[in-house]
Amino acid sequence: MPSKTMEELVSLCKRRGFIFQSNDIYGGVKGLYDYGPMGVELKNNLKQSWWKSMIYERDDVEGLDATILTGPDVLKHSGHEDTFSDPLVDCKSCKSRWKADQLDNQSCPNCKSKDLTDPRPFNLMFKTSIGPVDDGSSFAYLRPETAQQIFTNFKNVLDSTNRTLPFGIAQIGKAFRNEITPRNFIFRVREFEQMEMEFFVEPGTQKEWLDYWRDRRMEWWQSFANDPSKFRYRTHEKDELAHYAEACYDIEYEYPWGFDELEGVASRTDYDLKKHAEHSGAKLSYFDQQKQDPDTGKNGWRYTPYGIEPAAGVTRGLLVYLLDAYHEETVPNADGEDSTRVVMKLHPRLAPIKVAVLPLVKKEGLPEIAREMVSGFFKAGINARYDEQHSIGKRYRRHDEAGTPYCITIDGQTTEDGTVTIRDRDTMEQERISKDEALQVVQKRLIES
Ligand code: ATP
Questions:
Q1: Which of 53, 90, 223, 448 minimizes the number of CB atoms within 10 Å of its CB?
Q2: What does 158-190 look like in DSSP terms, one character per residue?
Q3: Distance, CA 284 to ligand 1 centroid (Å)?
């Protein structure tokens, strides 16, 4: 997709209520975005699909919802205080600031000057004070990843669920990073959401579980995409591994600027549990009665589990599916001339509104029939929208841009023979079906999508 279309996507997101610049009326704050009426539904649908695939469709993962505010002990002993930083470079000429790996031939991307400072580590964590006195004595971090509270809750979850290994703990929530240069719309921002899972396994089995989760996660991303060929894996080189990882794959997507990260699937070893156990005194280990201790040969083996972590960005996933959905097509207008149709081909299960119900005119009892149908959809848990504003053609185009997969039109014939038309967003084909079957038809299409 050319960059022109990226601009068009940004403008569609605003026009249709997907994504707004945060603090918009005061000029916006860089790296912060708000999710509007369509955006919040899309985001919720994405998160629910992930939760379903992690928690409800398997028998070995538990859920968690831990705090954003994280005490300094946790992030000190996890290594984040010392290492969660990017190399920061200042341009002495134009005073702009860059991440060292963004420089073009060691010159400033803004003014091209080569008069730059040496890179120095810039910690990406946001800090805030806790309690009424702001004297620096009591503070917390806004978590830079959701994972750490999974490790600190390992024993709580293990003891309260009686799980045996392997098992996972999954969490969705906000994370914050004071990125030096937020960019590419919602790709790199300072406040975002993550969907992360730590899958705890026996030492020695981590390689097979890492490959297993890499493949499951790839399948999941591709299952909602129009173009699955735009996803690929990238294996991390040894020198780019995070301080806790022994191996890592990135699942990458081909964004308008090229392939870049969507999700990381890392083998985090026993690093985090061991560090937290060492510094807190908590017993963050697992006892397997069925196994022999490999060192002593005795029955029963106590070990620190290894963690496999699929860590995905919710908001980055949203960008991927918005890019994948954006299509411009040439179609004939009402006068038979060529016109451009912008259509968001979002997967029906992700689409914010599943079905729009449109009375052709605002009279002759059509609005009443339409409203009754909408309430039937609501009762069945399907997000529907009653829409009577503007011509039918404009309404179809509006819902094409919002990604609504089905439009049902109530017209004069409905009052005569009880039929309505159902229009498919992608093919634009219309079919006459019985008004009373509309709910089942939509339900069936959503299930089969
Ligand atoms: P990057 O290399 O892009 O900075 P990362 O490797 O530091 O990302 P992880 O720590 O592995 O990222 O975080 C897991 C996921 O969280 C990423 O794959 C991405 O989807 C998301 N993510 C991380 N940082 C940001 C950010 N600043 N804005 C939006 N999403 C982010």
A1: 448
A2: HHHHT--SSEEEEEEEEEE---SS-BTTTTB-S
A3: 27
How sure is the predictor about 104, in pLDDT bands with cuts at 50, 70 and 90?
confident
DSSP 182-235: -BTTTTB-SEEEEEEEEEEE-TT-HHHHHHHHHHHHHHHHHHT-S-GGGEEEEE
- Ligand 1 contact, 192 CB (< 6 A): yes
Residue nearest to atom 19 of ligand 1 (CA): 313
Distance set, CA 43 to CA 46, 324, 328, 449 (Å): 5, 15, 23, 19
Measured torsion, CA atoms of residues 206, 212, 216, 219, in degrees rounded to the nearest 10: 130
Query: Residue 182 CA: which ligand 1 atom is closest?
Result: 27
Closest residue by CA, ligand 1 atom 8:
261
* DSSP tag of 35: E
The phi and psi torsions of 103 (rounded to 5 degrees) equal -70, 145
Query: Which atom of ligand 1 approaches the CA of 144 most closely?
Result: 10
Query: What is the best residue among 243, 316, 320, 321 to mutate for testing ligand 1's pocket, by most ligand atoms within 8 Å of CB?
Result: 316
The reply to whether ligand 1 has any atom less than 6 angstroms from the CB of 411 is no
Altogether, the residues listed in the chain come to a count of: 449
Give the model's confidence band at 3: pLDDT under 50 very low, under 70 low, under 90 confident, else very high: low
**Cβ atoms within 10 Å, residue 252:** 17
Hey, is 127 helix, strand or coil?
strand
Please indicate whether residue 210, judged by its CB atom, sits closer than 6 Å to ligand 1. no
Task: Report whether residue 347 contacts ligand 1, using a CB cutoff of 6 Å.
Answer: no
Q: What percent of the chain has pLDDT over 70?
A: 99
Q: How confident is the model at residue 131 (pLDDT cuts 50, 70, 90)?
A: confident
Going from the Cα of 434 to the center of ligand 1, the distance in angstroms, rounded, reads 48
Q: Quick one: average pLDDT of 249-278?
A: 96
* 4 pLDDT above the threshold of 80: no
> Residues 176-220: pLDDT tens digits?
999 998 989 999 999 999 999 999 999 999 999 999 999 999 999
Q: Could you tell me which of 449, 448, 446, 318 has the C-alpha nearest to residue 382?
A: 446
306-313 and 191-201: which strand pairing?
A: antiparallel
Instruction: Give the residue among 320, 322, 257, 317 at the shortest CA–CA distance from 16.
Output: 322
